[in-house]
Amino acid sequence: MDVMNVFLLFLLVPLRVRLVSANAKAAATPKLPVYGYDMVDVTLTANPGDLKGEKRVLVDGLATQGECDMMLDLAQVGAKPDIEGSHWYSEYEIFEGLEVLQAAQLAQQGAVPIDSAEKLLTLSDKARRFVLGYFGLPELYLTYTHLVCRTADANSTDDRTDLSHPVHADNCQLDLSDFSCPQVHPLYTPRHYSAVLFLNDGFKGGEFFFAHNKNFSAQSRVKPKCGRLVGFSSGEENLHGVQAVLSGRRCVIAMWYTMDRRYREESRQEARKLLQSLQKPLETKSEL
Ligand SMILES: *[C@@H]1O[C@H](CO)[C@@H](O)[C@H](O)[C@H]1NC(C)=O
Ligand SMILES: *[C@@H]1O[C@H](CO)[C@@H](O)[C@H](O)[C@H]1NC(C)=O
Hints:
Blueprint: H1 3-28, E1 43-46, H2 48-51, E2 56-60, H3 65-78, E3 80-81, E4 93-99, H4 100-108, H5 114-134, E5 141-152, E6 163-168, E7 193-198, E8 204-205, E9 208-211, E10 218-222, E11 229-233, E12 240-243, E13 245-247, E14 249-258, H6 266-287
Helix pairs in contact: 3-5, 4-5, 4-6, 5-6
Bound molecules: 2-acetamido-2-deoxy-beta-D-glucopyranose (2 copies).
The site of one 2-acetamido-2-deoxy-beta-D-glucopyranose has 3 residues, from loops.
């Protein structure tokens, strides 16, 4: 054994002892179980048991307040009604959305900061990595990313009985006559997992809920707040909906994922390229 090895051993022994004692300390303090994937500042809020479904998870801390504010500002400028109309899901709510490429194009026009469009990409990718890790999947790709807001209209009342988003599954077409849920090609089947990153609270109503099959009553509910993420598999095992937004504005990043790379969201690449090209002129200038 040469001098260098002895020196390394000397260094390693105390380090190992320190690691072991740190682990023992962590084990002694009550800590939330870690399910497959650990991310700094992301804490488990409800597990499959709490949410009453095997492939469901709820965490907090996936986005900071600053990041939520960036996304809310981006939605304020860029989220627009669907071509189907502004009251797409409810007669009492305005539904507006923004896609990643649209966000990048707004940055190109100077309507929103480049950082905000970039943040929509990085936050949705962070959520993807969490879902991939938590559920222990071999691979997972975003297939669609939508920054959406639901705003109570002036005629919304507290005794409304409609939903902001009716009970549905994300990858099959629920048939109300027999409660079957056939996978209808080509729109639905490539979705394997879904997640919603909540961006705010301070509105009335708007809880996300998982629903029982057949009677559609709530099995478990999720109160939106900045940085909270609910993730779940996209099949009929996870029927879900959104309660009416009675007043105010509720914004989220809604995400659908696929394990089949053929269905990756192509526009993410385009958005990233566009954002990179927007950064370039500055670099070129500084070189002159
Ligand atoms: C509420 O007002 C909007 C227009 O702001 C209208 O489109 C919608 O039909 C109204 N809803 C009801 C139930 O009257
Ligand atoms: C709905 O169905 C579930 C499961 O079948 C049952 O446990 C629950 O009590 C039902 N809820 C209502 C409101 O009927």
